[in-house]
Design goal:
Pdz3 Domain, 414 residues, EC 3.4.21.-, six-stranded antiparallel beta barrel, hydrolase, Serine protease PepD, membrane, globular, mainly beta, six-stranded antiparallel barrel, Peptidase_S1_PA
Length: 414
Amino acid sequence: MPQTWPHDPERRTDQPENGSYNPPPPPPASQPNERKSKRFGWPALIAAVAVAALLGGAVGGLAVNSLGTSTVEGAPQQTPQLNRTDDVTPTTEAASVAGPSVVTLSVGGDQALGSGSGVILDDQGHILTNTHVVTLGGQTAAASVLVQTSDGEVYEAEVVGLDPMSDLAVIRIEAEGLTPIDMGSVDDLNVGDQAVAIGAPLGLAGTVTEGIISTLDRTISVASSAVPEEPDTPEQENPFEFRLPDQSDPPTAQGQIHLNVIQSDAAINPGNSGGALVDHAGRLIGINVAIATRTEGNVGLGFAIPVDYAQRVAEELIEHGEASHGMLGVTIVPAGDQYVSSGAQVVEVLEGGPVDDTEIRSDDVIVGIDDKTINDPGSLSATVREYPAGAEVELTVERDGEEFTETVTLGGTN
């Protein structure tokens, strides 16, 4: 369900029609701003690694890593080259359309440096990325952020808003001639569709990789990138940790968050975080956020926050500086065990919470929200938080082998 952004830019007209493709001209270079814009050599950047594994045990120690930093100096970013235009591939088409809308970020804090990627949302200079990129995995709330656009210009950025619960953030630069990305929708995707990732893996700006969509609705758990002060999630949720090489111990754990993500096999690596996952036409379908790996590198398991959720959070960050998330007001456990579950079993209904005035009670099993199947507590948590506070949802509940539905108005977590 595509939406428009605040200060909605005029829609681009370089989209392919009826199978034909006319490559867009390179975006006009923005005028250098003596105070905001400068060219610079990328610093050596330090890798952040998640060292705990949610999927461990069942799959032999598989780890989910954040993608927010890199260790390689990158050359100035450029628009994808087109040496011929008569027989371009779908990947070329997607990269040419979306490439000018993807930027490279360099982030500096007191303890470390990092790099990542971002996506231009509008001609006002708003850029969407990950919270873990901007906060260096939760280490700092006052990082300095530099943005390099596809024409090679570099700008100082201000942080508009952080949302650790979705691991999304919006920053803003003062620049002209920006190319906002076109929005797609998960509702239009199929497993097996082409997916193209664009970003700065290992600091190599403007890198394009392609693959297919493996799964449209995977639930993963990653370390919260909130700077300390955010309450921890329950201890049994086995939080991930971010560790930087210059630290003997990881930062204080801030718990973990659950995310429903698009899984693809497009090669993504550290530094791709916050970058674009696009479809064959260059429309944004996800924000790359994590990889699953045994070796801290790509093994064909990449995860992206779906564009519909990312767009909702970004709009709220731009308008309010923060985003809201739904809350049910129940404590839950797997309806099964840690490896095989068939829903989220209610342990307790919190007094005065959104579910308190419904028929739901302890030992009931929540198996669906609207048209989405709920398999375990993680998928329930991730799905509820995709809705804004105050949203009305329909829960499908099982009791003694029978199903019934309850309509609930969600509370808010912030």
